[in-house]
Amino acid sequence: MSGMRSTRRELLVGTAAAASLGLPLGAASAASGVVRAEPVPMRYVRLKPSPFQDAFAANRRYLLSLDPERLLHNFYVSAGLPAPGPVYGGWEAQGIAGHSLGHWLSACALVVANTGDRAIAARLDHALAEMARIQAAHGDGYIGGTTVERGGRTVDGKIVFEEVRRGDIRTGGFDLNGGWVPLYTWHKVQAGLTDAHRLAGNPRALPVLLAMAGYLAGVLEPLTDAQMQQVLRAEHGGLNESFANLHAITGAPRWLRLAEKIRHKAVLDPLTAGIDSLEGLHANTQIPKVIGLARLHELTARADQAAAARFFHARVTGHHSYVIGGNSEREHFGAPDRLAARVTEATCEACNSYNMMKLTRHLYGWQPDARWFDYYERVQLNHILAHQRPDTGQFVYFMPLASGARRSYSMAEDSFWCCVGSGMESHAKHADSIFWHDTGGGGTLYVNLYIPSRLDWPERGVALDLDTTMPFAGRATLTIGRAPRTAQRIALRMPGWSSGARLMVNGRPAAVVAERGYAILQRRWAAGDRIDIDLPMRLTAEALPDDPSIVAFLHGPLVMAADLGPADAPFDGVEPALVTKGAAPDALAADGSGGFRTTSAIGEPLSLRPFFAQHERRTAVYFPTFSAAGWSAARTDYLGRAQEAKALARRTVDIFHPGEMQPERDHDFVSARSDVVNWAGRPGRRLRPGARMDFAMTRAEGPAILRVMVVAGDADRPMAVTVDGQPVPPTGRGDRTGERFALLDHAIPAMGAQGRPRAMVSIIAGRDDAVIYEVRMLTAPDAASTT
User: Which residues contact 765 (CB under 8 A, 6 or more apart)?
Assistant: First the structure.
């Protein structure tokens, strides 16, 4: 994030030579001295009333509403067993079925580990018993629910694994032998079983886990390195982490060898060399690979693995992230520090933040410095809390940061996106990182997150209450309920967003030691002792790195956003800009109720409130700013561009982004000879000479325009475009010179009486390659004027 960039760099540079770093997974690390801090086990922590407790409760209700037998529908079918219930909708009704089950297992295990919830534990136990029955029916350790299309039929995805075992390996990047990321789904299920074993302590989990791992090991171990690298071109989640964890649980060298074999060199080797080659990559495909490296470092103490994890974290948080701490636009990384053109309705996939928080926990465990949790807190407050509706427990896929955008929530039984799965986990773990402790016997208790909670840790003789008004006001109180008879250190994180902190112990100013971003208090504590913390919250502005005139505002750790109206009403206004006389925060005034007010450049009153809490509102997060003279000169063009953008949005019926996984699924994309490319920060599909791509697009009844985006230099390359089998030659060309692209328009006549609302589009390359970056279905200009 641009506002954290300098401190992050200082932190990473200052520790670049450190090699003894790590974070445990509940089993002793094989590399002594790697781990310096561990989270206090969740069973000793209880959330108190707060937005976090609300999110946890809503998530628990959602977990209980899901039927594990329906999540296992395809698993029963694969094993030749009758399925007790119908398959869920959304992604669960597609080839990726099973990934939700894995996340659900992990989320249930987290709840059980935190609260011992008997209802959740019983539901988890039933799912594990059924998984054991399904696995026994296969007889070879296989357990899965993925499917694949073959010859117009949907068949069991086990065929893909058996083909890979024989060395038959094909992938276009988002598939493996035609199956939708089957190894990604495998990782989710294996991770869920791991968590059911280590977090929930359920004895059914480990036998299923070991047999499952053994089946996949039998597929992957015989592969040559070249074959393995071909397999790893397909998204495979954190499969390296899963096998590293299994080694930590069992001590068996086989699993460590396999974890190290699952190394995607095309991505991890540049990171190990300190090279940022992330531009154009599907973001969430990469983060779990790095988490796996971090976990391997904890087991091997290899410095190169730690260096790659630290470098990746620094690049993503410092050069690829937005103000809420999330990253990616339309699921992909762009060029570093080039975000201004990528503030859209498809920013910040929730899975990315879920995984970056996991990686942050590893890095903090290696080096317990408070600034790691400045980032963690930023994401947890402003992205994770924002992406769940606390009334229904439903989730957002992308967190849109474009002005006037609203959040689109999942449906309880008919979405099951990846971000629904990671959302189940994210809101089951709000208690897992509040309190940490050192591992060197120093007796330090770290308070990293100011979340209302109670800690009762009998093994250490410690009990305390953490009561706080944060994140809305910077005050917190720790009240000691029980303490050991020896002196103990309590380390309170002093957030980077605050200055002038004040600490009192039993009503008197406290003498503290400042160390790595903490205020450390050491004494023999007694029941009734009270620590009061005052952390002044300042209003600050954070600019985009490539356009300092575009800023977002934070009050302490909270991102503030303008309320632009209810989500169920369209936003027809102009993106709010501000005219400033001095520093950007001077343009805002406190409203007396925790928010701020200002007036836009065109005179509209604006009210800014915490972004995360505006679940059913349209918002503006980033604001273009102008001096008075600058606004006077720019006003006409600014308003004109805004109107052009709104006119295009009104005419757009459908938009397709080739080279991106979910848009290709949504548009029934098929292509035999094409591959994913990236240019100028945009993914696309390259068709070889004579190759074709077919896809479906929604269209209006009247005349339409099919607009195809190509690189400007390729605009004259011949290619054929058909709609519902009819050729549609280009009728016009427009250039987007700022992005170096050309827009090729193709006129489509009005639908006849038998017309279909979805048009089947084909693009066929001529004698040269054809590279397609975007296809947009528009109403024709005359038709648009009458709608």
Answer: 687, 688, 689, 690, 691, 692, 719
Where b means 16+ CB within 10 Å and e means fewer, 86-112 reads ebbebbbbbbbbbbbbbbbbbbbbbbb
**pLDDT tens-digit readout, 318-337:** 999 999 999 999 999 999 99
Helix residue spans in 72-157 (DSSP H):
73-78, 99-115, 118-138
What count of other Cβ atoms lies within 10 Å of the Cβ of residue 694?
16
Cα first-last separation, the chain: 41
Mean pLDDT of the residues in the chain? 92
How many Å apart are CA 527 and CA 465, to the nearest integer? 11
Q: Residue 161 and residue 168: Cα distance in Å, rounded?
A: 9
Beta bridge partner(s), residue 454: 46, 465
Q: For the chain, what's the residue count?
A: 787
Question: What is the C-alpha to C-alpha distance for residues 61 and 428, in angstroms, rounded to an integer?
Answer: 11
Tell me, letter by letter, the H, E, C secondary structure of 310-323.
HHHHHHHHHHCECC
Residue 193 contacts residue 187 (beta carbons within 8 Å): no
- CATH architecture type of domain 652-785: Sandwich (2.60)
Q: Is the peptide bond before 471 cis (omega within 30 degrees of 0)?
A: yes
Of residues 400, 423, 416, the one with CA closest to residue 614: 400
| Per-residue pLDDT tens over the stretch 500-522 | 999 999 999 988 999 999 999 99
What contacts 81, CB < 8 A, 6 or more positions away? Answer: 133, 134, 137
Report H helices in 458-559. Answer: none
Distance CA 328, CA 349 (A): 7
* The residue type at 687: L
601, 577 contact by CB (below 8 A): yes
Q: What are phi and psi of 547, to 5 degrees?
A: -155, 90
DSSP string computed for 28-66: --SSTT---EEEPPGGGEEE-SSHHHHHHHHHHHHHHHS
Where in the sequence of the chain do the CATH 2.60.120.260 domains occur? 652-785
**Cβ pair 157, 216 in contact under 8 A:** no
Asked if the model's pLDDT at residue 12 lies above 70, the reply is no
Give the per-residue pLDDT at 151.
87
Contact 572, 365 (CB under 8 A): no
What span, in angstroms and rounded, lies between the C-alpha atoms of 141 and 144? Answer: 10
- Taking the C-alpha atoms of residue 24 and residue 309, their distance in angstroms, rounded to an integer, is 15
CB-count exposure of residue 500 (10 Å: 0-12, 13-18, 19+): exposed
Domain with CATH 2.60.40.1180 in the chain: 435-534
CB count within 10 Å of CB 297 equals 29
Query: Residue 79 carries which DSSP code?
Result: T
For residue 679, give the DSSP letter.
E
CATH number for the region 435-534 comes to 2.60.40.1180
Other Cβ atoms closer than 10 A to 783? 17
Tokens 């770290």 label which residue?
446
User: Residue 257 in 3-state DSSP?
Assistant: helix
Ordered strands of the 37-39 beta sheet: 37-39, 435-438, 444-447, 488-493, 518-523, 513-515
